[in-house]
Every structure is written in structure tokens, then in C-alpha cells.
Amino acid sequence: MNDASTAARQLAGGASLNEALGHSAAECWPALDRAIRDLPPQDLGSYVAPAGRWLQWHWNAPMPSLRRSGNRWAESESATVIALCHHDGWVRAAALDLTPDSPALLPLLIVRCTDWAAPVRDRARALLSEVPAPALAACAELVLLLARREQGRFTVDLLDRGLREGPAAQAEALLTSEDRATRRLAHRIALDRGLLAPGRLARLAAGSGDASLQDLCADAAIASMRDEDHDDVLGVLLTARNGRVRAAGVTALRRTGRHDEARAWLTDRSGVVRACARYVLRQGGTEPLPLYRAMCTGEVTEPGAAAGLGECGDRSDAETLWALVHHPAAAVRVHAVTGLRALDAVTRAGLAPLIDDPSSAVVRAATRALLPHAAGLSREWLSERNAPDRSRAVRVAAQRLLRAAG
To answer: Is the pTM of this model over 0.85?
Structure first.
């Protein structure tokens, strides 16, 4: 794909849209519109293609009737493109009448619906209203990109209406769009139309990398599930990789009366999941703090228990967490540091040795905990750890602490 300026010059030279742009992303069309408008009139005259010659002759002409004139413009896609992006509103308005016969020009018709000139904008909108809904849906990314413009609401409303009133497959096809705004619109419409079953919503939430869609689909799955859907929906949500989705599943255990099952997520690696598990247990009459204390004494097998103890314990639990700072498992040491931070029980002397820990995760956790206390650390001690023979994690930790210490 060429850049917009190159494509504009090629179109003025008679190249087709496919030759100039190829497969174009949505943002290419507004860029092409600007690039063609910025072409110098004198340069257009130097191109030997029909588009250049016609533009040079009619540059300051009144609104031409392109369809009846018999000129070369109506025969040239490139010339029509240039006319649609022309700086003269009369020329843009006249060129709009050529768009219904050329599906390739639909993106520029959509661009003209946000035109700053009201006559051009109104004519473009009238023509776009006659475009079949599936064709407009195929340009959803461009429509939503132009929605940011002052005059962009019309096309969004047209697209929205087409997706809500058209075949279900039309809206569902956009659920997997590569464009985030398009995916979000498609999911909202599919939910409003009741096109997605609870189990499918749960799978969409678990498989999405978009936090907004994770929340939207997880909440909708829980709200719409029936008794027979509980295992399907919760089974997906509770095993999702993303903590937000697991948290929604854990919270839903309360709605289904399965409070005690939240125990399994008290030690989740995500803090928000642990918090939801504690809430559900309390709603079911179980206090989580004794459970955490039991898990953190003796042989600790669940690293998240240390973090959970710090999150709901008191200062008397700091001694237990200090003992876990030296646990053989690196994951337990990391969560023990997290728990000490939650209890506001961090001391320089206690955590400074962890800067030399063989686990980079422990080093990072200790660094975050020590940053507010960096001023009290020895500059010489930190400089030694910034030496080339130290591991990268240790050097980065020393640099961060040195900066924090000023």
C-alpha cells in the first residue's frame, strides 16, 4: 500500500484505485482525501492522464453535470476519485452522482457524508441511505473512525440501524473484526438483539483481550444464564486466563448459592479475584482470615495465600509473612512481599537482601516495595549492584532505587 501523497499523485496520473492504494485500511481514506486536496493545480496540469487534463480545464468551472457532459471524467475512476476529494465543493457534489455505479468508491462516499460543505454532505447522505446495509457494514471500521468528526453521527446511526434491523449473520460477522470499535459495536448490538447464548458469551469474555468486552460479555453471560447454564457459564469464566473474567465468575458463585466454592480462589494469582473470593465467602457466612492464617503456617503450597493474608490480615500477621520472605519457592517469596506491602509492614533491612535474590520476579517485587524507602538505602550499596557483573534484574533494581533516592 502506498502512502496517501504517493497514491494521490498516481491517481492524478490515471492509475486506478487498486493500483494506487491496493487493500487499504480505514485510515487511508481520510488521508487520501486530504492528500488529493493538497495537490497543486499547476502540478495536475503536467499529468498526461485524462484526469489531469480535465481538472486543469474545469478547475474554476461552475458545477458540471458529469453524467451528461460526455467528457472523459465519467469514464475514468481515477478522475472521479480526484473530483470526490476536490477542494471545490461544486466539483465534489457533482462527482457524488457517479458513486452509485462504483462500489469501490463507497469509502469516499462515506467520507463525503462528513463534508464541511452542507450541500455536499446532504447529497452524500442521501446517496448513502440507498446503499445496501451489508455494503455499509463492510465499511464499519471507516464509519466508526469518522464518527470522531463533528458531522460523523449520521453514518454511525445508519450503520447501527442496519445492523439492528438486518440479518443476524450481518452483526455476528463483525464480532471478530480486527478493529476494536467495530467489535465493541457488534457485541453491543448482538447483546441487544439477544443473539448470543450465555455459554457463548462466557467464551467470548474468556477469549477476548479487550477489557471492555470482557466485562460486557461476562456480565451479560451471568445475567442471562438459567439454572441449566450454570456449569457451562461458570466453568468457562472461572478457568479464564484473564483475572477480570475469573473475578466475574467468582462473584457469580454468590448468585448461584455456591458460596463455599469460592475457597479455591482465595489464593488466585490476581488480587481482584482474591478480593471477590473473600466477598463471596463472607456473604456465605465464612470469614476468610482464619483460612489464610491456616494456609500460611506450616508448608505453604499456594503462593497467593501470602498475598491474601496481607490483604485481609492485621499487623500481627506480619511476622508470619516475614518468615515466608525466605521460603524456598520464589512465588511464595513474591506474594509474601506483596502481603507485607498491603500491611504497610515493609522495612528496608528486611527486604533489601531480596535485591540479590536469584529470582528476577522477587527482585522486582522487592524493588517496588522499597521505592518509598529508597532514601535510606546506602548509595554505595546500590552502586555495587549496578555493576556490569550483576544480573540485569539486579542492575535495573539498583538504577530504579538510585533514581528514587535522588
So the answer is: no
